[in-house]
Amino acid sequence: MKLEKITKEVSGSAGASRRWYDDACGTAHALELVGERWSLMILREMMFGPRRFGDIRAALPGISANVLTQRLETLERHGIVERSKLPPPASVQVYGLTEWGYEADQLLMVLGGWAARSPDHDPTLPLSKTSLMLSFRTMFQADVAGEAAMTVGFQLGEESFRVRIAGGVLTPVRGEIDDADVTFVTTPEAMAGYVYGKVPLEALEAGGAIRIAGDRALAEAFQTFFTLPPKAGC
After folding, report:
1. For residues 2 and 17, what is the distance between their CA atoms, to the nearest angstrom?
2. pLDDT mean by block of 10 residues, the chain; 234 residues
3. How far apart are CA 10 and CA 226, in angstroms?
4. How many degrees, rounded to 5, is the angle at CA 137 between CA 148 and CA 43?
5. With contact defined as beta carbons under 8 Å apart, do 231 and 118 qualify?
6. Is the pTM of this model over 0.85?
7. What is the pLDDT of residue 15?
8. Which residue(s) pair with 95 in the sheet?
9. What gap in Å lies between CA 153 and CA 161, rounded to an integer?
10. Where would I find the beta strands (DSSP E) of the chain?
11. For residue 19, what pLDDT is reported?
């Protein structure tokens, strides 16, 4: 599917030369680029491809339409986000990351892995679908997976994701899951409980939180490939 790029002058009170810190450190400039509230979260939601405005807002229920508009405009001004139009019959505007914007993928993984060690981190809070997929990449234990090879599908409401594990590498993508060896029909929160909380699969099935289609042995093996890091100071 080819997107039609939209080029438009973006204006606003926060210009491209805005400085918060007057500091040449790259970390300081990074915060000037994506340090405003919600900015990194917005980037996170576009890590698996362009999204409609409404999709981004639905994944971030605490953000207002006005703030989301402002943040998208700022990110576009900085060359991190670009607008495109889906081809017919959809013909709707979507927001996606530029090539440079996608490089923030590593930033999100390192930051997420570091923050998971915080004693104050609460894994029971709501979790977006994209967050779940990024967490898989962050917490995947290649040494435990070894030579395991599988394609795992996730039906999360109306969205589907496919996770491929092969050669000690885990690759998640948004898309069709017809080729999956095993599929989880669930919610991000329930899946996190299974993978990270090590809740027994039978218990989640009994409560209706997870349904399995396909190779059950692979579904059980998948749980063993992820481990949360120890808490700092423990």
Report:
1. 33
2. 56 54 92 95 96 96 96 97 86 94 95 96 91 97 97 97 97 96 98 96 97 98 96 86
3. 42
4. 155
5. yes
6. yes
7. 45
8. 51, 83
9. 6
10. 4-6, 81-85, 93-97, 150-156, 159-166, 169-174, 182-186, 211-214
11. 73
Residue with the two structure tokens 């949360």 = 228
Which amino acid appears at position 93 of this protein? Answer: Q
What is the three-state SS of 111-172? HHHHHCCCCCCCCCCCCCHHHHHHHHHHHECHHHHCCCCEEEEEEECCEEEEEEEECCEEEE
- Which strands form 4-6's sheet, in the order they lie side by side? 4-6, 81-85, 93-97
Q: Is 34 exposed, middle or buried (0-12, 13-18, 19+ CB in 10 A)?
A: buried
Length of the chain: 234
**How far is Cα 191 from Cα 193, in angstroms, rounded to an integer?**
5
* Residue 14 identity: A
- Contact of 154 with 161, CB cutoff 8 Å: yes
Both structure tokens of 76: 């576009």
Whether the CA torsion 108, 109, 114, 118 is positive or negative: it is: positive
* CA distance linking residue 201 with residue 199, whole number of Å: 6
Nearest CA-CA partner of 57 in 33, 41, 40, 74: 41
Q: Count Cα atoms within 13 angstroms, Cβ side, for 196.
A: 21
Q: Give whole-number Cα distances, 26 to 69, 100, 107, in Å.
A: 26, 15, 13
β-pairing, 182-186 vs 150-156, is: parallel
Distances in whole angstroms, Cα of residue 20 to Cα of each of 15, 43, 208 = 12, 20, 49
